[in-house]
Specification:
It contains 2 helices and 9 strands. The structure holds zinc ion (2 copies).
Amino acid sequence: MQTLHGQCQCGSVRYTVHGTIATLFACHCTECQRQSASAFGMALWVKDPQVQLSGPALAEWTRTTPSGKSMTGRFCPVCGTRLFHQVAFPGAPLSIKPGTLDDTRTLRPVAHIWTASKQPWVQLDPAALQYPGNPPDFAPLVEAWHAQETQA
Ligand SMILES: [Zn+2]
Ligand SMILES: [Zn+2]
């Protein structure tokens, strides 16, 4: 179990998440590029999350992913900072947008996905797993996170 603290850009919303970190990866798909208004998105997956929020109720927006699943993004209603993503299926992890954490020093992604649409100037860590699209199975990403956790 870990406890993670973070907030949106304007500070109206603060959050605490208790849970087990499953993995951390960067996604270079065009949806993440547009959502982050940047070159790629990052996702920190937390299993069995317990979320505590302070501030106004989060706004949300739901879209259908290429694999046909319903995914909801939650964000600060004041400044619009995206905080969480969650896919609607039982047992799905909470995906924290990890740039919103108070402590981002240990956030080194173990994998890069959707590299087929990555910006050409982005240089990937050769030690990280790479997938041109969505990984057929996320288990290797979870294993890679645990491997580097036990190393640290
Ligand atoms: Zn805000
Ligand atoms: Zn993406």
